[in-house]
Input
Amino acid sequence: MDSILLKNFDSELLQIREYIKHIEIVNALCTLNTTELTHLELKQLINQNKTFYKEKRAFEYKAVIISLYGILEKHIEIFIKEYLISLSKIIIHYNDLNKTIINNHFNLSLDLIKKTDYSKFSHLDKDNILNTLNNCTKYPDNYELNLDSFVISSNGNLKHAKICELFLGVNVRLDSLLKTSKTFSLSENSANVFNNIDELVNRRNDSAHGADNIDRLNNTELLILIDFLEKYFTEIFNILKKELLQNEYLYQIKKEIYKEIKIIKRYKNNTIIGFYKENFNYNIGEHALIKNKNYFIKKPIVHFEEHPEDRITIKFDKTCNSKCTIFLKTINTPTLKSINTNPLYKPRRQKVNKKTSKNRIKSKNR
Output
């Protein structure tokens, strides 16, 4: 996933921050004594602010709350879609995707067909949705997903539990991953910290539906809420990047690009590992996949030694867990490049550098 996604989200939050700053500057300006002012337009602004302040404050509050919720819903959907796009670049074959994703893609695509009359999905064509779904089984090594199907239930009330439900549909256990993240696990009342999202949804609904006697947040409180949203989305983005890496490592093991080594002995706080040579690539600079419980990390090999009876020791720069499992890249690494079987597929023609081709012809003539 590209970091530009997070930058775009932060940019939209910045616009809201600047809008609140503008409101405060205008409000401060309007506290001036009009008798000391000579500029007519400035006097008019101050006088209007005094007579229209209550209505103006209500409108500004609604604008901020509704805009913040719109940013939340928009970028949650973008993150889910971009996660699936990135995942499809890692998992080459459709049938190798997690079963949760495959099952949801089928069922939700059928639901999506029924909702093409909705304004949100009016740009979609029923036949295209069906063809995309059908091609996943017909041409599984050249598949595309109906991305909109995975956000079909984001219907204007994306509370934290609903957001987690959407991510669960793409096999990301967001709630538990957020609660165990450094950002939120150390927070006071971490179990309730995500109520900020629910409160935003409730306030958005009250504002959009014209509820009376709303307990409005002041500008300082709004800025605190914006800061929380920034942390929330930054952590989601980081979680998705880690999940993509874990999927990549698991896929490489499944396709036997990496294989588990049978460890003979562990030395010096588990930085040196002894094993039998077999068919592994253990050169300096190569990376090993280290599995601790259900989580993988990648470590570079900084030294190796060959011993009698096909025994090898490799050294890592840092200590490994004493119960970790280690996977090394195989020498004859299988390729993950897919062969496109779709008869409608036309590969792009490579551009030829004319100067280079002329030089080659000249060298041949010589």
Q: What stands out?
A: The two ends are 49 Å apart (CA to CA). The chain has a mean pLDDT of 86. Residues 40-90 form the longest helix (51 residues).
